[in-house]
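Summary for the steering committee. One of the milestones for this cycle was to obtain a three-dimensional model of the protein with zinc ion bound, which we needed before selecting residues for the alanine scan. The sequence and ligand used are listed below.
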Amino acid sequence: MKNFKYFIKKSAIFEVVKFNSMKKLIVLTLFHILFLFPVYCQEKIKISEDIELIKLTANTFLSVSYGDISGYGRVASNELIFTNNKEAILFNTPIKDSLTKTLVTWLNDKMGLKVTAFVANHWHDDCIGGLNYLHGRNIKSYANKVTIDIARAKGKAVPQNGFSDSLKLMLDDKEILCYYLGAAHSTDNIVVWIPSEKLLFPGCMCKSIDSQNLGNTADGDLKEYPKTIDRVISKFPSAEIVIPGHGAWGGKELLLHTKSLANK
Ligand SMILES: [Zn+2]
Ligand SMILES: [Zn+2]
């Protein structure tokens, strides 16, 4: 009888363990289908050892560049390219001139795309590290006025044209809207909205779905962070593609995930 009782207890525990790991497996599988499936399906073009290009929509490409960021080692960063009628606008540069040269010349030589303008997300090197190269090619640059002030104070390359709250650019007949919605990852970080593609590029203030913390906030504002993310969430209800500064792109769930990290 005692043995029988023990057997029951043991098998019950076994069942619980089995149930828990089954649940975990189902949750993980759902996670992969929902969030990572688009990542697996995307078409990747390897430009060099350090840069790959991913086609997101008919007119947009994500460039993923790898470079050493001091204190973090080799880091992958996201840049966005929006094209229309063989012209292109670049949003963020890879972290240095040489990588930016590789990207821009490849777009020009292999895809026949002429990069005519550039918009910086904020003043860090993973946004403006290749700006000198762009200026050398006579590519017009735009940024938040605060980004310009900080870049100048830090002795970095300085974007040419500043804006305060918002900026509207046209690429032929298509609109690009840039907004400053408050401090988060940095005090000057902006978001870029391309209505025709339903694409939002909040950059480094937005974390990828597998991020477990907000990352580098040394130049940011943790008090404002959740409020700024809330403004971003409510301003772009029709966003379908959301691109973080680093890691896999997704949808609006990235903003909700970032909000929960910012509220921790
Ligand atoms: Zn940054
Ligand atoms: Zn970053």
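Key point for the committee: Residues 122, 124, 126, 185-186, 204 surround zinc ion (ligand 1) (CB under 6 Å).
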